[in-house]
């Protein structure tokens, strides 16, 4: 018996030694082969920090861990990271390895960050496959490849996927991904069981968020035909928050296109599942959320997708008599109905049709209804939009839990419709276009400091609509300390919005107090600290082209540090990317100010300002403390008493802060004063001390007449 245990002990020790020592013989060779094969197969920079080889984790197979692996692009994607992994684990057949063949049976990705990018030119950063050898190139005679893929299992832990398509302004992100795939990928035909979960899914298109923080679960069985490049979906379930969607079909991959045959629907028809996609409800006690009603959702994608062709597609959504709300909150949406569809039976863009009909609901007993349709969107868009009802913002925010509520009040009364064809608008056949109605906003208040730093109140605002123009009437706004009253008209808005026409309009403004400094903090953005460097380089700002606009303003008091202006009158005209100051007058520093000139921001040219500026009878001590230019040009004004009149013309380019680029300043002017008394001048005080007199304590002059010039940003004062 002792001899038996001795033999067993020797065998165990031998096996353990074999397990620990064998990887040492293969590690360097396997790591070098993997690194060589990776770089040979892709046109990118592939690297990893270190590697570990073990027989213990998946005995009797090798486990190779490549730590901190990265794939970085080249050429158009120079230094852009495509893939970054905390670790990549490969399970390698040990028996094959002993014969010199390296067969990978399993892949595990740990904490991967996958960054997929399509640039504005349509190039994809994942298109990194190295070009294949030409038929004429010599081929090595070898019985097997250096590395063979016979993967039967692949998994991913705690991953992040980011997809950006700059050509379409599309952004999609998955966070907290867990992926498991099982199947035999080494055969031409196989099945692949897939399970994917993600804690958060975000999707936005052209800046509009379609999904935000949606939890994802995806279970699918794929039938894979590698010989014919056909992938069939079978027994698939996609869960978005609580919404379950089934789909089936296939994807065929051709050299220059994809053949798509997909159908999807939502088998569960409870409205609660659909509304779970709204983050404000789903993330806050959704188990307590009450929703009644049913919905139907289905759609399809069929046909060829390529660079020059789109498949046919369709989506239908119908909601019947739904209602929702929290039981402990007073507000509730009742009798919600919706019938919406998007259809394109041919794949041609001009054959797309969008229809939203019977979209209506009641909130706090107040009904709201809207309809929309769009046909032939490319050749001659035919549109029909209508809205009617009352929207109570206070009741709307009362739908949300306390942590989601906004400090929002007010009533919006809507009753308008727009119906017509683009061809009628382009040819000024406005009698064929129906555009009428109004929007009235009353007692609106928004006071949420997390969004805006100042409370905003609109006591009344009204828009009246016609085919030719929009009238803005009886609009009174207060923002912080400032009050604003405006009215005006916008003409030719339909050609401008839909057919690149020219928009014309006018706006009249009145204020008792306008605190510009306070208004500049409205969005809560941090201002540049004093003393920090600012960008003084020329600033290119392209103003709108197709716009002609007139603006008149009367302001009793205007605060714009360090100036306090009263009786402000302004008259501006905008056309051809230029703002003309036809009149700008105000009272300040016990005197008056007048200005006219132009501000231009043409395409590919620095912003430029030309002004003719006049100050009349300004109090000199107050002016010296306020006007920086006076401090630089006439420092003696600090010790003077009296009034002054100044007039100058200047042309200058502007920087990103809309301040003058001083080296570009050209112009000049004059400075005149009334009778002046100058005292406490250091040079005169020294003269008194030398002569032993006090007669030079104060100097009186009948007035000064000083001419000066701006040349390349320098001020030249002429003799006087």
Task: Write the topology of this structure.
Elements: H1 2-41, E1 45-47, E2 50-58, E3 61-72, E4 81-92, H2 94-98, E5 102-110, E6 113-118, E7 147-165, E8 170-183, E9 189-205, E10 208-225, E11 230-240, E12 243-253, E13 257-265, H3 271-275, H4 279-282, E14 290-306, E15 312-325, E16 333-344, E17 353-363, E18 366-375, E19 382-392, H5 393-397, E20 408-421, H6 422-426, E21 434-446, E22 456-465, E23 469-479, E24 482-491, H7 493-499, E25 503-515, H8 516-519, E26 547-560, E27 563-575, E28 578-588, E29 591-600, E30 608-619, H9 620-626, H10 628-633, E31 640-641, E32 643-653, E33 666-673, E34 676-679, H11 682-691, E35 698-701, E36 705-711, E37 714-717
Parallel strand pairs: 5-7, 6-7, 25-26
Antiparallel strand pairs: 1-3, 2-3, 3-4, 4-5, 4-6, 7-8, 8-9, 9-10, 10-11, 11-12, 12-13, 13-14, 14-15, 15-16, 16-17, 17-18, 18-19, 19-20, 20-21, 21-22, 22-23, 23-24, 24-25, 26-27, 27-28, 28-29, 29-30, 30-32, 31-34, 32-33, 33-36, 34-35, 36-37
């Amino acid at each position: 018996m002792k001899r038996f245990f001795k033999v067993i002990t020797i065998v165990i020790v031998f096996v353990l030694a074999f397990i620990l020592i064998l990887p040492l013989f293969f590690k360097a060779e396997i790591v070098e082969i993997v690194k060589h094969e990776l770089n040979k197969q892709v046109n990118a920079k592939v690297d990893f920090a270190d590697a570990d080889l073990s027989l213990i984790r998946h005995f009797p197979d090798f486990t190779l861990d490549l730590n901190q692996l990265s794939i970085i692009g080249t050429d158009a994607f120079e230094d852009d990271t495509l893939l970054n992994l905390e670790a990549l684990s490969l399970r390698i057949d040990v028996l094959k390895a002993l014969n010199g063949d390296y067969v990978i049976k399993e892949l595990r990705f740990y904490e991967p960050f996958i960054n997929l990018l399509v640039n504005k030119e349509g190039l994809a950063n994942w298109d990194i496959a190295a070009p294949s050898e030409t038929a004429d190139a010599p081929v090595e005679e070898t019985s097997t490849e250096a590395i063979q893929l016979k993967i039967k299992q692949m998994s991913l832990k705690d991953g992040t996927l980011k997809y950006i398509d700059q050509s379409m302004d599309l952004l999609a992100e998955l966070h907290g991904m867990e992926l498991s795939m099982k199947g035999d990928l080494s055969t031409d035909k196989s099945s692949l069981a897939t399970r994917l979960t993600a804690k958060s899914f975000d999707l936005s298109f052209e800046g509009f968020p379609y999904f935000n923080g949606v939890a994802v679960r995806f279970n699918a069985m794929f039938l894979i035909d590698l010989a014919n490049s056909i992938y069939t979906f079978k027994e698939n379930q996609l869960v978005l928050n609580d919404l379950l969607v089934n789909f089936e079909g296939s994807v065929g991959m051709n050299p220059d296109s994809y053949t798509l045959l997909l159908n999807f629907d939502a088998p569960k028809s409870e409205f609660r599942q659909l509304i779970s996609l709204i983050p404000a409800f789903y993330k806050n006690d959704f188990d307590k959320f009450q929703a009644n009603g049913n919905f139907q959702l289905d759609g399809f994608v069929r046909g060829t997708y390529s660079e020059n062709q789109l498949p046919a597609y369709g989506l239908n959504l119908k909601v019947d008599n739904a209602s929702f709300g929290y039981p402990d909150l007073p507000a509730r949406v009742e009798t919600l109905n919706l019938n919406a569809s998007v259809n394109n039976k041919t794949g041609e863009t001009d054959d797309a049709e969008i229809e939203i009909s019977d979209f209506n609901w009641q909130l706090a007993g107040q009904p709201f209804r809207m309809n929309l349709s769009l046909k032939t969107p490319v050749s001659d868009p035919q549109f029909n939009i209508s809205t009617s009802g009352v929207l109570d913002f206070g009741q709307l925010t009362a739908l949300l839990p306390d942590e989601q509520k906004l400090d929002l009040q007010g009533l919006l009364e809507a009753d308008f419709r727009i119906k017509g064809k683009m061809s009628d608008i382009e040819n000024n056949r406005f009698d064929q276009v129906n555009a009428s109605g109004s929007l009235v906003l009353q007692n609106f208040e928004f006071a949420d400091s997390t969004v805006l730093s100042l409370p905003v109140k609109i006591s009344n605002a009204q828009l009246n609509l016609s085919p030719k123009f929009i009238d803005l009437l009886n609009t009174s706004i207060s923002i912080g300390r400032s009050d604003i009253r405006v009215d005006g008209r916008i003409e030719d808005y339909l050609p401008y919005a839909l057919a690149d026409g020219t928009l014309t309009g006018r706006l009249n403004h009145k204020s008792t107090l306008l605190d510009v400094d306070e208004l500049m903090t409205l969005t809560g953005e941090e201002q540049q600290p004093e003393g920090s460097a600012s960008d003084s380089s020329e600033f290119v700002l392209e103003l709108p082209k197709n716009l002609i606009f007139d603006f008149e303003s009367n302001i009793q008091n205007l605060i714009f540090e360090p100036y306090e202006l009263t009786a402000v009158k302004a008259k501006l005209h905008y056309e051809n990317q230029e703002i003309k100051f036809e009149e700008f007058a105000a009272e300040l520093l016990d005197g008056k100010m007048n200005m006219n000139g132009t501000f231009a921001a043409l395409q590919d040219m620095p912003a430029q300002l030309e002004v003719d500026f006049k100050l009349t009878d300004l109090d000199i001590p107050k002016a010296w403390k306020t006007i920086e230019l006076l401090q630089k040009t006439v420092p003696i004004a600090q010790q003077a008493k009296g009034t002054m009149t100044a007039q100058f013309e200047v042309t200058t380019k502007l920087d990103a802060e809309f301040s003058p680029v001083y080296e570009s300043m050209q112009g000049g002017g004059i400075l005149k004063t009334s009778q002046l008394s100058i005292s406490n001048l250091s040079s005169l005080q020294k003269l008194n001390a030398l002569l032993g007199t006090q007669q030079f304590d104060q100097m009186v002059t009948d007035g000064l007449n000083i001419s000066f010039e701006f040349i390349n940003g320098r001020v030249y004062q002429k003799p006087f």
